[in-house]
Each structure stands twice: as structure tokens, then as C-alpha cells.
Write a structure and sequence with these properties.
Rubrerythrin, domain 2, single chain, 3-stranded antiparallel sheet, disordered C terminus, 4 helices
Amino acid sequence: MPTYDFVCNTCGKRFDVFLTFSEYGVKTVLCAHCQSADVRRRMTKVRIAKTQEQRLESMAEEFENFAGLDGDPKAMGQMMKKMGQQMGEELPAEFDEVIDRLEAGQSPQEIESALPDSGETSESE
């Protein structure tokens, strides 16, 4: 079944829904977080195939600019979004939330205190 990405207009959170082709557009989609029916489909990223070497080269160039961004959360968020796109892999929703918060002007310290589990992994991983 295809996965469709949605954003809730009530709580603002992103979520995925598995729907068959026949269910899409017919079945009511509810927010996975607050159960609201006020949701909209989110267009997914278009991916351009690159070799791993090309992706690493692009990311290395971006990392050169990373050092001066400590005082500019918006620029840091934009750079992280671009790097995430260049990775060519599906990233967790938490990554998108951190980027959204950076682009809204929150500092990394504010984000870390608001999302204390965002950088931790469990011992079983």
C-alpha cells in the first residue's frame, strides 16, 4: 500500500497514512496525533538519483559553512533542510520538527529543552 504524508491543520503535526489506491480520496483521514479530520496532504520530496560520492561531496561543502551559523537558527535550519534533501533518504518526522523550529528562530538550546528525547537513542538500538 502506498504511504501518503499529511499535515494536521488543527495541531500542525505531520503523519503518514497507509491507504490503498481505492481508499485514497474516499476514506476519511484522521490526524494520528489529535484525531482531527482537518488535515491536508503534504507533497513529498522529489528525489534525484546521485551516487553516494556525489552526496558526500555536496554535504562536505555544506559542512564548511556550518561553523558560522551558531547565532543564526534560521540559516542553520535552512542548511540542515538542504543537507537532509541531499541525503536522499527518508528522515524521521523529528528531523522535520527540529528544522521547522530552527526556521522559526528557536535556538538549538530551546529546541533541546522542548524536545529532550530528540537526540537520544535507546540502549536496544
